[in-house]
Amino acid sequence: MHLHTKLLGILLVILLSHGLLRAQETVLSSDELFQKARQEAFDHKNYPKAIALSKQALQKSPNYTDISIFLGRLYTWSDKVDSARMVFQDLALRNPTDADYYLAYGSLEYWEDQNDPALAIVDKGLLQAPKSEDLLLLRAKILKATKKYSEANQSLENLLKVNPQHTEGREQLLSIKDLIAGNEVGINYNFMHFDKQFEDPWHILSLSYKRGTPIGSVIFKTNLANKFASNGVQFELEAYPRLSKTFYMYLGTGYSNSDGLFPKFRTGASLYANLPLSFEAEAGFRQLKFTENIWMYTASIGKYYKSLWFNLRTYLTPGDDNISQSYTLTTRYYTGGANDYLGLVVGTGISPEENRENLLSDSPYKLKTFKTGLDYNFSIKTKNMFSITATYYNLEFKPKTRDNQIDVSIGYRRRF
Q: Which residues belong to any copy of the YaiO beta-barrel domain (predicted)?
């Protein structure tokens, strides 16, 4: 009998405890329920439970806007598009001023490829919060998706005025700079001084015309050179076609009949990939035809971080006995838009992108080169772009004989 009474008491305690726990659950505040819903969504990815908790919170506080926005997001993440729209449309009747509402609703329509409604929603949000970084970025993505690259560019420029260190904004801006329709002409003068290797300095004047198209830019260049006290001309054609959101290419070709000053023919191609975490990778080749063909294979990896861009590039040139190698590390600090930055370059070897490329031709001695340089680019009223570059080379052009060389370049481009 005593044992029976004891078991009955234990059972009573369990029932009372369960009842107390149930009572505690029923008295949770809307804020506490909101917090539990967020934990279920973010920590456990349990969207159905998070939805149930959010609905419970809204029963207590029907006008709690943050919870309604979160519920709309939960429906979006659960691919319940119609339910999400109902939540956001109900909220619209209250004329919300919260930028997060316009971001959540605009993102839903953008992900559903409803770009016109998405843009209208985001523009309303920007009237409420004109400096919202998230809304400015989303607006640029919507405009980019509809191939309105100039408007997307302006939205990104506005974003970077608000926060110059916005990594994704910087990355997006640079990714569309070759897609903006329009024309650009440029002129660049390059001067190179040699201490020992050559008696006369080199001069190169480059004239360029660039045409932006919806699939990428096309550039035509004419290079006029004075090297070894002789004159020469080279013509080049380059293109940067975009293949998808992830991939784009570089294609280039050139011709010159000025033997020894330029390669007779040059070609090149690279495939670029925009990778997660603001990385960019490239792989490709360059071919130079002097008396014989020189084939060079290139690869690079780049990374955007706030206002900085880092790029490590190599050129590998197979030979009869070994593989010549060139490595260059480039760092840029962006001070404004895509054409406003300070650059630092450190590297070894000679690359086919340099005006010294003809030093690669039939060299009886394997050139050993170190280089470092500074690059300053700035724009005035976005249409006028200036560049100043100075590079120092230390080159062992024959055994135990080194030369100090200075390369200075100034340029101007005008967009119209």
A: 183-354
